[in-house]
Design brief:
47% of the residues lie in helices and 19% in strands. It is of the alpha/beta class and 201 residues long.
C-alpha cells in the first residue's frame, strides 16, 4: 500500500471509527463519574436527563435497601415473650421466632392481662401472648418477617398485632388450612392501621 493509499484509508475509514470510539468512551466515563459523584443531580440531568435520573433513582433505592439490610443484621433481635402457662400455641410462635434468628426470653405468667394493660395493648387487638421486641410491642401471632420490617422501617408506633388467633399464622398451623388475616400497627393515640395482609390458601 502506497503512502497516498494509506492516507486515504485513514481519512475515509479509520479516523471516523476512532472518533466514534473516543466519543463512546467519553460518554461512558462521564455517566459513570456523574453517578459516582456527589455533584448536584441538576447538573447531571442537564447533560443526560432521563438516563441519569433513572439510574440515580435505582442506585439510591439499591443503597437504601442495602443500608436497611446492614442495619437489621447489626441489630440484635431480642424478644421477651409473656404468655399464660396453659397456652400451647404460644410455644409454636416462639419456635417460629427462634428459627428466624430471634433470641427469646420466655416468661410464663398467670396474669397475662396485667401485662397487656402495662404495654397499652388495645382490647380489640388482644391475642394470647404479648412480646417486647427491641422496644416495640408485638401482640399475638405476628410473622417474623413483619417484625423485621418493623425494625427496618422504625415507624412511630407502639407495635404490631394479629388479633385473636387466626389459623395458619405462625404457631397456629393446622395442616394446609390458612385463614386470611391482617397485621395491624397501633400507636399511643389508639390509631390503628393495616401493616400487612395475608390471603387464605
Amino acid at each position: 500500500m502506497s503512502h497516498k493509499q494509506f492516507i486515504y484509508c485513514w481519512q475515509k475509514w479509520l479516523l471516523p471509527i476512532l472518533k466514534r470510539a473516543v466519543v463512546m468512551i467519553c460518554l461512558t466515563a462521564g455517566v459513570l463519574s456523574i453517578l459516582g459523584s456527589t455533584a448536584p443531580m441538576s447538573n447531571a440531568q442537564a447533560v443526560f436527563p432521563s438516563y441519569v435520573a433513572a439510574n440515580a433513582q435505582l442506585v439510591t433505592t439499591t443503597r437504601r435497601i442495602q443500608d436497611q439490610r446492614t442495619s437489621l443484621k447489626s441489630t440484635a433481635l431480642n424478644a421477651t415473650v409473656y404468655h399464660s402457662p396453659d397456652c400451647n400455641c404460644c410455644g409454636g410462635w416462639i419456635d417460629h421466632l427462634k428459627a428466624q434468628g430471634f433470641k427469646i426470653t420466655d416468661f410464663s405468667t398467670p396474669d397475662i392481662e396485667t401485662v397487656k394493660q402495662k404495654y397499652n395493648v388495645p382490647d380489640n387487638l388482644a391475642s394470647c401472648h404479648t412480646a417486647i421486641v427491641n422496644g416495640y410491642v408485638i401482640e399475638g401471632h405476628v410473622p417474623a418477617d413483619d417484625i423485621k420490617r418493623l425494625l427496618q422501617e422504625k415507624p412511630n408506633v407502639v407495635g404490631l398485632s394479629v388479633p385473636q388467633m387466626p389459623v395458619g399464622t405462625p404457631g397456629m398451623e393446622m395442616e394446609n388450612r390458612k385463614d386470611p388475616f391482617s397485621v395491624f400497627s397501633f400507636d399511643r393515640k389508639d390509631s390503628v392501621a393495616v401493616f400487612n395482609k395475608y390471603s387464605s390458601s
